[in-house]
Amino acid sequence: LVRVLGDDHKALGPWNPRLEPELLREGLRYMLLTRIYDDRMLNAQRQGRISFYMKSTGEEAVAVAAGMALDPKDMLFPSYRVQGLYLLRGVGTVDMMCQLLSNTRDMCKGRQLPVMYHSAEKRLFSISGNLATQVPQAVGWGMASAIKGEDSLAATWTGEGSSAEADVHYALVFASTYR
Q1: Is 10 exposed, middle or buried (0-12, 13-18, 19+ CB in 10 A)?
Q2: How many CB atoms lie within 10 A of CB 117?
């Protein structure tokens, strides 16, 4: 058992990041916003207003905490269930809803399935309908960044289903071979 909170509900152990309360409140705000957005969009999907939606319930902190730790110039290669990254990076809920509705304000201009958001301006690569394609894309982007002498990094997210995809293994071999 690894304990990270004491009985007094305060961080315990050497991994205590000693974050300021305001930063913790900001993270909580984005996690709650993600949960509210998720609930409303799942209701819209169940009512037949949108065709497809994938919730991130229970995974909000994965996206928000990682997004807060990364630099705004870092390129993110998200998967499903990391809506918090988009909210944290400033993609508005209305813009995300328009993508789900595939209306005239759809960021993808109707060329992508629902929940496959993107934002070049916010450095968020497009989600793909195929599992794990973002992993080799992130490796390639990271390699290109290093070749150009940039100090930004690429970050990606996958689920347990994606870890069995060949793309993940190809990306790991490629990254370890070319460093």
Answers
A1: exposed
A2: 24
Distance of CA 66 to the CA centre of its chain: 8
Contacts of 126-132 with C-beta under 8 Å, sequence gap 24+, read 127/78, 127/79, 127/80, 131/158, 131/159, 131/161, 131/162, 131/165, 131/167, 132/79, 132/158, 132/162, 132/163, 132/165, 132/167, 132/168
The pLDDT tens digits for 104-116 are: 999 999 999 999 9
Tokens of 59: 């995974």
Give 13's pLDDT tier (boundaries 50, 70, 90): confident
Q: Which pTM was predicted?
A: 0.89
